[in-house]
Amino acid sequence: MTVLMITGTGTEVGKTVVTGAVAATASAAGRSVAVLKAAQTGVRPDEPGDAAEVARLAGAVTTAELARYPEPLAPATAARRAGRAPVHPHEIAEAAAKLATEHDLVLVEGAGGLLVRFDAAGGTLADAARLLSAPVLVVAPAGLGTLNTTELTARELRSRGLDLAGIVIGSWPAAPDLAARCNLADLPDVAGAPLLGSVPAGAGALSPAAFRSAAPHWLAPRLDGTWDAEAFRVREAPRAS
């Protein structure tokens, strides 16, 4: 894959840290990486955004940001309230395609979930993915409630003819509860796509050196890592009642 779209089942599920892990792992495998943040919301002009955080964690990656809005809202709403131009799906696709001419891998991080609106016409990250024929990686939480939102996201991707590359758990707890443990088996079933990784909770607080060293162990070979989904599931599986 040249361009990989990264979305979540909702907000605060670990998209940026997962994007950093994918970038770090690809870089360690010798691939040149660019990270495109389609629209950054809730950050002042002088503050680092998600793309900068990915670069801090992953190291030598190219970063780009198409628009920035001060309020922590959906991009279309934030743009309207700020009186600024929104970002349209074709602009996301064009920027990603340009970066792809100069890099082995381009990671496009969305905002919130798959159908969060970027403009008044209802343009979404899914529309940008369709324009690029790009696969989509879905970041999901570990615990109770994730099966429903993950299946809804997967169904929407398929209804649009888009390729669901797989699921990455964005924040695997140090002491997972029963729901999280059971979800390791259930997530790929409801998504119809493989688990491609599990990032430990708190990974974003690691030093950059520690993050880069550990990242390949959190992601499956399809994402250039060494993580074994079946071995992880067996290790974390709950005991039968």
Automatic annotation (TrEMBL):
Keywords: ATP-binding, Biotin biosynthesis, Cytoplasm, Ligase, Magnesium, Metal-binding, Nucleotide-binding. InterPro entries: DTB_synth_BioD (IPR004472), P-loop_NTPase (IPR027417). It holds the Pfam family AAA_26. The active site is at K37. Its cofactor is Mg(2+). It comes from the Bacteria. It is found in: Cytoplasm. Mg(2+) binds at T16, D50, E109. One of its GO terms (cellular component) is cytosol. SUPFAM superfamilies: P-loop containing nucleoside triphosphate hydrolases (SSF52540). One of its GO terms (biological process) is biotin biosynthetic process. GO terms for molecular function: ATP binding; dethiobiotin synthase activity; magnesium ion binding. It is an enzyme of class 6 (ligase). Its EC number is 6.3.3.3. It catalyses: (7R,8S)-7,8-diammoniononanoate + CO2 + ATP = (4R,5S)-dethiobiotin + ADP + phosphate + 3 H(+). Substrate binds at T41. ATP binds at residues 12-17, 50, 109-112, 170-171, 200-202. Its main location: cytoplasm. Pathway: Cofactor biosynthesis; biotin biosynthesis; biotin from 7,8-diaminononanoate: step 1/2. Catalyzes a mechanistically unusual reaction, the ATP-dependent insertion of CO2 between the N7 and N8 nitrogen atoms of 7,8-diaminopelargonic acid (DAPA, also called 7,8-diammoniononanoate) to form a ureido ring. Homodimer. HAMAP family: BioD. Belongs to the dethiobiotin synthetase family. This is ATP-dependent dethiobiotin synthetase BioD. It comes from Streptomyces violarus.
